Amino acid sequence: MNRRRRIYEGKAKILFEGPEPGTLVQYFKDDATAGNGAKHDVIDGKGVLNNRISEFIFSKLNGLGIPTHFIRRINMREQLIKEVEIIPLEIIVRNVAAGSLVKRLGLEPGTQLPRSIIEFCYKDDALNDPMVSEEHITAFGWATPQELDDIMSLAIRVNDFLSGLFMGVGIQLVDFKIEVGRLYEGDMMRIVLADEISPDNCRLWDIKTRNKLDKDRFREDLGGLVDAYREVAQRLGILVEAENALTTGPRLVQ
Ligand SMILES: Nc1ncnc2c1ncn2[C@@H]1O[C@H](COP(=O)(O)OP(=O)(O)OP(=O)(O)O)[C@@H](O)[C@H]1O
Ligand SMILES: [Mg+2]
């Protein structure tokens, strides 16, 4: 057997060449990073949980007609995806004040925002992913005005779906980050959701206890990251509680 060709290794995932042209295999690592890699740790079991949580969310989005790159999960750590041309933006949707918005505007963390706010950062590690406006995006040609419209409506649809999904299991969706790409099908091109949606790129607060169930546990040295991610998976019905209680590592429902 030949070794698969490694296309890209990032901080949290590895992309391998897929079995057919136009496909990739996305492998979820256990690495956790924050502050653009300034802080790094390996957290046993994180990749397995993110693979499952992201699979769950992307499958539901596909089912709702929201286009994504996701095809199917292959195993505990890998999923088959459609290769896209990534648009070099991080698209952040905020419902409640937290993180960099709190610092920038001096807001009280947890303040409900007057409406959902979309922000864009230019994906460039060397520049620390600076925040940019729609003007920069269209002027520098990172996306066309039409693409930007599609990206914003996609982001809003994802926010509406995710807010309801998490609300239903007692979790507040504070904010999240997505990536999108261009998918070419014949002579057609459309914008689809790419990368992952997991507690690594969402802020998720328990509605009753206000506990953080996301990567802020790592950023803020709160500990218990895998337990928090497992809690999210359990509430979404991805992990069965009784089964999970018997094991130390994540036990997955087949
Ligand atoms: N369907 C896709 N086709 C092509 N590339 C993709 C697709 N989905 C995600 N990617 C890219 O794969 C990489 C995933 O790796 P990872 O999330 O570990 O990267 P990272 O360290 O966060 O770095 P960065 O996101 O800045 O490139 C990202 O660069 C992401 O943009
Ligand atoms: Mg990433």
Tell me what the structure shows.
It is an enzyme of class 6 (ligase). It comes from Devosia geojensis. InterPro entries: SAICAR_synt/ADE2_N, SAICAR_synt_PurC, SAICAR_synth, SAICAR_synthetase, SAICAR_synthetase_CS. Belongs to the SAICAR synthetase family. The protein has two domains: 6-84 and 226-245, Phosphorylase Kinase, domain 1; 85-206, ATP-grasp fold, B domain (D-amino Acid Aminotransferase, Chain A, domain 1, 2-Layer Sandwich). Helices cover 29% and strands 32% of the residues. The protein has seven helices and 14 strands. Strands 8, 9, 10, 11, 12, 13 and 14 form a seven-stranded antiparallel β-sheet that branches. Strands 1-2-3-7-6 form a five-stranded antiparallel β-sheet, covered by helices on one side. Strands 4-5 form a two-stranded antiparallel sheet. The longest helix has 23 residues, at 145-167. Magnesium ion (MG) binds at residues 10, 12, 195.
Question: Summed up, what is this model?
Answer:
This protein has 254 residues and is α+β, with helices and mostly antiparallel strands. It contains seven helices and 14 strands.
Please write out the topology.
Elements: E1 6-9, E2 13-17, E3 23-28, E4 31-34, E5 39-42, H1 46-63, E6 70-73, E7 78-82, E8 85-86, E9 89-96, H2 99-105, E10 112-122, E11 131-132, H3 134-139, H4 145-167, E12 171-185, E13 188-194, E14 202-206, H5 216-219, H6 225-235, H7 241-245
Antiparallel strand pairs: 1-2, 2-3, 3-7, 4-5, 6-7, 8-12, 9-10, 9-12, 10-11, 12-13, 12-14
The structure holds adenosine-5'-triphosphate (ATP) and magnesium ion.
Adenosine-5'-triphosphate is lined by residues 8, 10-13, 15, 24, 69, 81-84, 86, 123, 125, 179, 181, 194-195.
